[in-house]
Amino acid sequence: MNDKPSVIRETDGDARIQARNLMNKAAHAALAVIDPETGFPSVSRVLVAMDADGAPVILVSGLSSHTKALMKDSRASTLFGDPGKGDPLAHPRLTLRCSAERIDRQSQAHDRIRTLFLDRHPKSKLYIDFPDFCFFRLVPLDASLNGGFGRAYILSSEDLRML
């Protein structure tokens, strides 16, 4: 029998809004993938934009190790949130578990995502159409939100979906 209270709070509207805001305001995130050669986690920084339904979108080079990893295993995690002044652990952050879906260059989704990505990252115009670059949608499975001291939540994919 465990008499300890759970540190996880019941997910409410404020937690949903905070999680969505962390993703929507982010220009970049830390992307964690599984290295296909070693089986170890590997983390890198990627630029992000948000699709209409709230799924993060990344633009990556086929030459990068994280793209090769996503092509072999679609499981990934992203960390959103920037530490501010003082204790970096006192600032909100969101860890999103997701499934990466590569966007076909010939699809209508590609055109839509290309436009929204350029709106968020205009300097990516320099390389966005290079043949080795591609988009992935990071479809949310669930997330862990640390909204500040004593404010921990588990969110479902539905909690993260934009309405």
From TrEMBL:
Residues 15-157 form the CREG-like beta-barrel domain. It comes from the Bacteria. Transmembrane segments: none annotated. InterPro entries: CREG_beta-barrel, HutZ, Split_barrel_FMN-bd. GO terms for cellular component: cytoplasm. Coiled coil: none annotated. This is CREG-like beta-barrel domain-containing protein.
